[in-house]
TrEMBL record:
GO MF: DNA binding
SpoVT-AbrB domain span: 32-79
Species whose genome carries this gene: Methanomethylovorans hollandica (strain DSM 15978 / NBRC 107637 / DMS1)
Protein name (Swiss-Prot/TrEMBL): Looped-hinge helix DNA binding domain, AbrB family
Pfam families the UniProt entry points to: MazE_antitoxin
Length: 96
């Protein structure tokens, strides 16, 4: 069976189609420290691997549990519009 590609799929830094989804494997890439100004640094290796350069805009996505934010994710803003429905909708409807 051939997997049908949606026109709104995101692309990886190398230009290939991004296959990530809420059920895919994940990696802990780094542990970040927040400084007194609320800033953090993404390690160079992570930025290079993700294709994040100066001026790249990232969307901060949060998930709430019992009124508090429990999880945060960063998604390139340019990829967000195409990923919202495919990535976030299953998480929203998971408990239905």
């Amino acid at each position: 069976m051939t997997k049908k590609r949606a026109s709104n799929e995101a692309r990886s830094p190398d230009g290939s189609m991004c296959e990530c989804n809420p059920c895919s494997a994940y990696n802990v890439e780094a542990i970040l420290n927040i400084d007194e100004r609320g800033q953090m640094v993404l390690p160079k290796e992570v930025r290079e691997k993700a294709g994040i350069k100066t001026g790249t805009k990232l969307a901060l996505i949060s998930w709430e549990k019992e009124g508090s934010i429990c999880c945060l994710a960063l998604i390139k803003a340019e990829d967000l519009s195409g990923m919202v429905k495919e990535v976030l909708e299953p998480l929203i409807h998971k408990g239905d």
